[in-house]
Amino acid sequence: MVREENVKMMSRVAIYEKNDGKKEIPMNSFYKGDYVRLYALKSVINATIAFVLIAAIVVVYRLDYILANVLKIDYKQWALYIGGAYAIWVIIYWLIAFVIYSARYEKARPNIIIYNHHLKKLREMAETEIVKTKGGVVISDDFIDF
Fold it and tell me: How does pLDDT run across 109-121, given as a tens digit for each residue?
């Protein structure tokens, strides 16, 4: 038997899964710290790739100067300069990613809690419907500890 309350709740769940749930439901499998660290690490890897590409473009752009002054350039000083620039680049990128992914997780958390509550309610309604149709009692395995 189709109940209006079940249909409404299933519709809410389906709409959430189709829209925001695509991004937010996978977050549910992570603790906040793990989620933020994982995506901040991915951002740092992307920042490293971007830094290398930008550095390669600068080297190609300044290749005439580099080739003209191969013996005059202080490579130790340039290595320190590039290393420092890389460190600053990665730290800034990591901080921005940390803030963004923390905010995303916090924004999604209430929606995931509501989603899980709706799923639990739907499961309970389905179990009570089974009990009514079979005319018996369904014993849940939740209380059994092996």
Answer: 998 888 888 889 8
Domain ranges of the chain: 35-127
Residue 104 burial (CB count, 10 A)? 16
Question: Model pTM?
Answer: 0.71
Structure confidence by residue, pLDDT tens digits, 1-33: 567 888 888 888 888 888 888 888 888 889 999
Q: How far apart are CA 4 and CA 128, in angstroms?
A: 15
